[in-house]
Amino acid sequence: MSRSTNRTLTCPCGEVFTSEIYEYVNVAKDPQLQYTVLAGLLNVSTCPSCGRRAAIARPFIYSDPAITCSPTFTRAMMCLKRSAADPG
Ligand SMILES: [Zn+2]
């Protein structure tokens, strides 16, 4: 099971809103999150008032048995599918 918390964010426009911030992502349990992570959209909040996007600078743990990467995953890191890097 993935783990997330609700954080209160303040947009530069003055809007205060809450957003779900993931601390731990297990794509074996929550496969729909894989695309979000790999697209760099996890922990990116959109202000409901002005639409501004803000990336939350919070590292999270990414758990996927099919992907080789560092346990502490940041949005800038690239991960390779094991099947692509090491066929067989
Ligand atoms: Zn805003």
Summarize the model shown.
With about 90 residues, the protein is mainly beta.
Short descriptors:
88 residues; 40% strand; mainly beta; binds zinc ion; elongated; four-stranded mixed sheet; disordered C terminus; 2 helices
How would the blueprint of this fold be written?
Elements: E1 3-10, E2 16-26, H1 32-38, E3 44-46, E4 53-55, E5 60-63, E6 67-68, E7 72-73, E8 80-81, H2 82-85
Parallel strand pairs: 2-5
Antiparallel strand pairs: 1-2, 3-4, 5-7, 6-8
- How would you describe the oligomerization state of the chains in this entry? single chain
Largest sheet: 4 strands, mixed
The distinct ligands, each listed once, are: zinc ion
Number of strands: 8
Strand residues, percent: 35-45%
Number of domains: 1
Q: What share of the residues lie within helices?
A: 10-25%
Shape: elongated
Q: Tell me the span between the first and last alpha carbons.
A: 29 Å
What is Rg? 15 Å
* Poorly predicted tracts of residues: 74-88
The average pLDDT is: 78
Name the structural class: mainly beta
Q: What's the order of the H and E elements?
A: EEHEEEEEEH
Query: How large is the count of helical segments?
Result: 2
